Every structure is written in structure tokens, then in C-alpha cells.
Amino acid sequence: MLDRVRHRAWGLSGRLIASYILVTLAVVVLTETLVFGFQVPQLLYGTAVQTQLQAQVDATAKSYAQQLSRYGPGGVPAGTVLGDPGQPAQPGADRPAGDGTLAVPAITGPVQGGQAVTAVVAVSAGGTVIASSVPSRYPPGRTAASEFPAPVAWALTLGQVLKTGIVPTAYGSVLWWVQPASAPGQVAYVYVQAPWSPPAFISPARAWSELVQLGETRALLWAPLAVADGDYTVTLPVSGRDEVGRLEANFTTMTGQLGSALAAERQRATGDARAAERARIAREIHDTISQHLFALRMITAGMHRADPGNQQAHAIERISEEALRDMQVLLIELHPASLDSTGLAPALQEICAAYHDRLGVTVDSALDDVTVPAPVEHALLRITQEACTNAVRHGNAPRLAVSMTRQDGHVELTVRDTGTGFDPAAPHPGSGLAHIRDRVAELGGTVDIDSAPGQGTALTVRVPMP
Predict the structure, then answer these.
(1) Contacting residues for 162 by C-beta, under 8 A, at least 6 apart
(2) Cα–Cα distance measured from residue 218 to residue 77, given in angstroms and rounded to the nearest whole number
(3) In CATH, what number is assigned to the domain containing residue 67?
(4) Nearest-angstrom CA–CA distance, 169 and 226
(5) Sheet holding 457-464: strands in order across?
(6) Which residue stretches of 46-82 are H helix?
(7) Structural domains of the chain, count
(8) Among 195, 213, 242, residue at a domain's last position
(9) Domain range for residue 466?
(10) Domain contains 359
(11) What is the tens place of the pLDDT at every residue in 416-442?
């Protein structure tokens, strides 16, 4: 009997405890829901919605400032009612137009309901109302100080200063903007207002949906600003398959393309700057140092002819001739062939012609017209320049042979000379061969050097191609 009473008492206590917990949870959930419903409107309408409406008010003021300034010296005709007579008044509400502005209704009679309305007012330099879209609220001939709220009136007395914000009026709060006219005329300022009345409560489901949209909107708002500041690494996560999602995906694609285009443009600009500087240095060397060396050679040649036994004059003549030859080689290096509009084979042929025309070196060329990626083109061009320079400057080669073919999945470039040759295994003070090996290694190719003292040099480069 006692056990039955105990079980019955514990069962009643358990039910009471469970009921208490459930009621407490229900009260907490209801309270949080109410707080969420009351607080979210302030968050939403205090940030994104307000920013959007303020931008529409600003754009409307600028648009009317341009339109009213076109009336010229005669000014706006007396009794003009601004705004669009086809728009409904809708006190307490605003209607966006398709161009980012607000649709301002032209209200010729009194406003029913005592609420704030979307309005535009033209003001003279003296602070007098000239025309408005709501003559019953802002009558022509009245002063701004008597018709507008104090912050607006103060803004109109400050001259060429734009003012904006939220201000309470006798008919409710409004978002406003004062815009100076864009051209000389009777209208000096344009005042635009739009009703501002965020709701006190919205349903939690709608609040959550609008919070999500607010996050997406904020991302779409700050991302273009970041791009405008030069940050092309901005990416937006795709939030869905709707219009906003497609806009986010397209924006990310656009920033990627802009970043690539800017990087390529910077690279081209850097290359152009380097080429221009090399050309300037080449002109300076040609117009100064090479001319002095030429004059020195002519003087020493005359001294040697006048006194054939003068060994010092003969040595100076020989040294000046070698210096002139080295100078011509340097000028050829400073004027590299271009790949921009010719292609690889014509660019290599241009190098061969430069050595023949400027230095009198016999150059035999056999160049197939191969198509390779841009990095390979650039590397093969520079390798050819370096090999020809080494052959003429260090090997005193009177004859060169340059060939290029594509076979067996690779491109083969060979530069042969009949110069003095060298021992490839011995250390070399210069860095020309090291640069060639580095360029070829970056492309996954091989370098073969066949040379010996007194037997000339053959340099063969093979670069794999798909």
C-alpha cells in the first residue's frame, strides 16, 4: 500500500516538473521570438534599407537639380507643380523609379491623412521656395526657415554644401537631401524628402529571410567598393540559383578576368618601360661612346700609317677596333628583336640580320616556322641572343649558323660558330651559359654544348612540346 502511494506521488511530481519545464521553454521561445521580431526591423531598416532609400533620395535630388537648371535665366514659371501628375500620392510611402530615383507624385490639392509624402522643392539662393511637388505643404513664396525643419533650413544657409539625414517633421520622419543646382539659374537648391517609418514588428520567419538577404546585400555592396579600390581578389560565395546567385557568380568571374587583364597590362607596361630604357641607353652609347671610339681608331690608324713602326699606335688601333666590335654587339643586345607582331622565326631572322649588317658576321639560318607557347618563344629568343653574343664577343666567330626545327615532340634550336671555342668542363667567369641552362630547365628541356679550344662551338637546346 505504501509503495503504491509513493509511486503515485512521484508520478504526480514528475508530471508537475515536466509541465513546469515545458511552460518555461514556451515562455522563453515566445519572448525570444518577440524580441527577434521587434529588434530585427531596427537592424534591417537602420542599415541596408535606409542606405538604399537614402541613395534613391540623393539620386532624385541630383536629377531634379539638372532638370530645373535648364530653365535658364527666366527661371521656373510661376505656379509650376513639380513631380509626375501620373503618380499616386500614397502618403507615408515611397515608390522607386526604374532609374534608381524615386517617383515623385505631383499633388495639386491638400494631402489627406496628415502623413509625410515623397516631395521635391526648388529653392532660390535667398532661401525662398520657388516651386514644389506639394504646394499645400511647401507653398511658393515662403521661406525655407518657416517651412522646412531646422536641420534642412540650416543646410540651405550654408551655401554649396550637401546635407542629408533623418529628420522628424509635423507629418512624420523623413529621409532628406539638399542638392545645389548643377548650372546657373533661378533655382539654387533642390530639396527632396521621402517618408521614413520602419515597422515595429515583423514575423520571425520574414525577419530571418531578410537577415539572410541583408548579408547577401552587404556583400554585394562592399565587393564593388573593394574592386574600385583596386582589390581584384574579391570573390563572392554563390548563395543560390536565383538572380542574386547568378550575379554573385558573374561578379567573381568578372573580378578574376579584371585581375588577369590588369596583371597582363602591368607586365606589358613593365616590358615596354624596359624596352624604352634600353633603347635610350643604346642611343646614348651610339651617340657618345661609339663615336669617341671610332674617332680614336681613325687617329691611331693615321698615326700607324705615318709611322708603321709605332707599336703603341698599332696596339691602340687594335684595342679600339675590338672595343668598337664589342660596342656593336652590346648595341644589338640593347635592341632585342620583338615577338609582338612577327612571331618566333622572323624574330630570330632579325637577330641574324643584325649581326650580318652591323658586324659583318656571316650568318646562315634555317628556321622553321614553329608555333609554341609564349613563354617558350621568349626563352628561345633570349637563348639565341645570348648564344650569338657569346660566339662573337668571346669566340671572335666570323661565321654563325642558326637553325630551328620541330620534330619528335620537341623544338630543337642550334647555334653553331667557327670561333675560338672553349672547354665546356672548365669554369667560366661569365653567366651567359648559366642563364641559358636556367631558362631551358624552367621549360623542362635539355642543353648540349659541343666545343673545344680552336674548334668552334655548337649549342643545342631541346624543349619538349605536346
Answers:
(1) 177, 178, 179, 180
(2) 44
(3) 3.30.450.20
(4) 37
(5) 362-367, 399-407, 410-417, 457-464, 446-451
(6) 48-69
(7) 2
(8) 195
(9) 340-466
(10) yes
(11) 999 888 888 887 766 678 888 888 888
